[in-house]
Each structure stands twice: as C-alpha cells, then as structure tokens.
Task: inverse folding
C-alpha cells in the first residue's frame, strides 16, 4: 500500500466518521485533522514495526494451511455417514453466539489499541475504551461478517478471474501486434506489470523451445 493510498484512506475515514458530526461543532480550521493524522502515522509505524517480526511465509504456508486442514477434517468427521459415529464439531468459544463473538472482538481491539496507540495517549483509559469500541463495531465486526459470507467469497473469486482474463487478453493483443523486434523490446522495457512480464517470459521460453526442437528434428 502506497503513501497516497494510506493518506486517502485516512481522509475518507476522517470525513465519514469525524467531520460528519465534528464540523458542525467546531471551527478549528483543520487542527484536529493534523493532530489525528500525526497519531495515525505513529500507529502505522508501530504496526509496520510489529509486522516486520512476523514470518509471513510460515504464517501463510504453514499456520493457515494447518488451521484450515484441521477445520475441514473436523467438519468432515462431524458430517459422518449414517453407519459411522459422528464426532461433535466443537466451535471456538467466541462462536457460540453473537454476544460472545462481539466480546472476543472487543478483547482483540483492546490489545491492538494498547499496542499501537502512541505512548502519550495510551495512558488514557477512556480513549482506549472508545477506540476499542469503534474498532470492534465499525471495523472488525463488519470485516468478519463480510469475509464469512460465502456469496462475497464467490463474487470476489469471480471478479478476480474476470479481471485476469481481461488483462491476459489485453496483454496478448499488445505483444501479438508488435510489428518488429525493436517494438517488442520496447514493449518489455516500458511495462511494469509483473504478471504480464512473467507471462511474456513463459511464452518466449515456450516458443523458443518449440523452435529449437523443430530445428533439430528436421531431416538433414
């Protein structure tokens, strides 16, 4: 995520959740905006520092895979055939009902706020409580509901497939219609799309191998 994208995210959040009510109460001419922006970047730095100690490869390729495997194995055992003895599918304690889920998210929010809030603000119990509640109700809870919606997952996968198909078609036209070798090299040098360049490299190797095989199999 770039600097401009992060700043834009903060601007939209400030406009929708703060300025919508604070603008009618005060005429501070942007003082609150700059104070909150300073704290926001301090939180971003803290988050970046803590995430730098996370082994992303291990989390994605090991921890997440094992967790999903365990989940689906337990789900399969719970949905055993009639002649088999089904095993109870034990849910996490936070998933018993909606109230338990909210309490669990509140605990997560409190930990995040305590770890990421600037040192000058972390001593304020009322501020921590308010921010944790906002984070729970306005961020974590909606995100969990969105990501656990099967229709959203299907729509997201479908959108990604359609996007890749459109991009592949666009890139295919781009290198197919290159009129000369010079234009082809220029197309490579001027493109920064990693997926396109990887696909182009694969096609170059594929056609080069085909040409080489055909050359050496021609009867002499």
Result:
């Amino acid at each position: 995520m770039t600097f401009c994208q992060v700043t834009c995210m903060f601007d939209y959040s400030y406009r929708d959740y703060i300025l919508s009510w604070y603008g009618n109460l005060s005429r501070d001419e942007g003082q609150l905006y700059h104070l909150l922006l300073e704290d926001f970047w301090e939180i971003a730095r803290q988050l970046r520092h803590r995430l730098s100690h996370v082994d992303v490869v291990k989390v994605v390729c090991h921890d997440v895979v094992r967790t999903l495997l365990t989940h689906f194995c337990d789900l399969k055992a719970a949905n055993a055939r009639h002649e088999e003895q089904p095993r109870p599918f034990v849910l996490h304690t936070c998933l018993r009902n909606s109230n338990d889920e909210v309490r669990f998210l509140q605990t997560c929010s409190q930990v995040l706020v305590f770890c990421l809030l600037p040192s000058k603000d972390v001593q304020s119990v009322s501020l921590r409580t308010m921010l944790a509640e906002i984070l729970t109700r306005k961020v974590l809870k909606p995100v969990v509901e969105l990501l656990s919606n099967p229709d959203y997952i299907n729509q997201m996968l479908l959108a990604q497939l359609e996007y890749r198909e459109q991009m592949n078609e666009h890139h295919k036209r781009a290198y197919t219609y290159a009129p000369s070798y010079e234009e082809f090299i220029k197309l490579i040098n001027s493109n920064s799309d990693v997926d396109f360049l990887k696909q182009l490299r694969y096609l170059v190797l594929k056609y080069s191998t085909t040409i080489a095989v055909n050359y050496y199999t021609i009867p002499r």
About this structure: DSSP finds eight helices and no strands in the chain. Residues 1-53 form one domain.
